[in-house]
Design goal:
The protein is of the alpha+beta class. 55% of the residues lie in helices and 10% in strands. The strands form 2 sheets. The protein has a 4-stranded antiparallel β-sheet with strand order 4-7-6-5, with helices on one face. Strands 1-3-2 form a 3-stranded antiparallel β-sheet. A hairpin with a 2-residue loop joins strand 6 and strand 7. 10% of the residues are buried. This is TIGR02677 family protein.
Amino acid sequence: MEKVLTASYLVVGNVERYRQIMRFFYKRHRQMQGILYRPEILQMMQEEFSSNYGQLELDQDLEQLVIWGNLQKQQEMLRPKTIEEYRNKNFRYQITENGILIEEMVYQLIHQKHTARGALDEKGIRTLLRLLEKLINEPEDIVELWQKIREEFRKVGEDTANYIGYITSPEVDSRMKTEQFLVYKDKFVSYLRDFISTLQNLYHQFIVVVKQFDTIEQGKLIAGIYQKEQEVPMMDQITYEEVQEQVLGEIQALKNWFIGTADRPSEYENLMQQTDQMITKITGLIYYFGQEIHQYQSRNKDYLHLARWFYQAETLEDAQKMYAGIFGLEHSRHYYVNEGSNTTSNRADSWALLPGKLLFHGRGRGVGQERRAKSFTLNKVEQQKQLAEFKKQQIQFRQKIDSYFQEDYLDFSTIQSLDKQTRTVFLKWISLAISSYMPTAIQKQTVITQKITTELDFAVMVTVDLTQDITVSCEDGQLEMPKVEMRRVV
């Protein structure tokens, strides 16, 4: 992991001069005129960079680019005719392969807005399927066919990945949140849905073909590609092992794209999920903007109607009351007040409690809350009276509970009338029985039997039959519930 010297000219101080020279070499290379001489390079720099650019700067820049590996130079062995030609050795320069790669990368980075958006191409998907089916069924020239498959698969993968990256980018996300996006919403959603529909229709065919990859003569394919690589004379030829690794990796990539592995989902599933999320997001934004526009139009009519009401108000007081009723109080303050303390049970109704009290104190600097120790008299007679009253209520409540049991057994389907207080206790026991019996294992066809410890001095065995429904008559209505039986146990 050493420094990439060929990229050094992009970040140094004289980056403008180096990039101007390299871009000139790259353009001439694309025009198949890769060999350049000092005079034409100097002329270009004086015309396009600076008229003060001289030969000394040119020699320094060219030599540095040669050192970094972006250019290569070669001296032409010509017989000098003058002393000037002898002093100025006649070199010719040419861009290297690494220099070409760097310039191509820079070009793509600069024009990424136009070149890296990708597309969801239905035609490419169908072409890839046709080539794969041909590879499985009747491979005439397996090497040429595999190269076509490789190129089409690479194009489909890059286009889909680039397009998904484009539509999920922050730039597009910010544009979607503007009302101008409503103009493109239908085209956007239709484009995504058409691609999803096509890919879903062809997915099963892809699965069938990909699962038959094991029937391909992989050894013949690898040997054919290796032979084709050897036909091109190069100094550093690719080895058979490298070709084998590349082909097997491409086959595995095709499988992972449509089938996936045990560790991660397939690229097809990821593509479907991201596209579906984008459609959901777009439709949500459409609904949001539609609601905003609809509310704006509706409120316009409402305000006109309210204006007529205020116009018809006879007095200012009537108008103020109308304003408070429609728009609420202009200045309001909220306070937290503790509940009243006249209850000793969490089963008491909130509307039956006494209201709480909030004491206001002075505010501002220098105003402190005065705290004084207050004495109180312990009224033991009143305390005993309230304790006796509480015990009496508990005995009456226990007797009411006992009245529903016949020989320690209770069947809810036989209850004639169930009072409100007892019903609250029974439903609490039933809820405890159901929640304590493996909630994730409860299904429709289940009978639950669970022992519950009650707040009274006994336990009950609760049996809930979820397969049967009953109706229990209560003093305030009818209660529909599963069939429940209770038996008191020691």
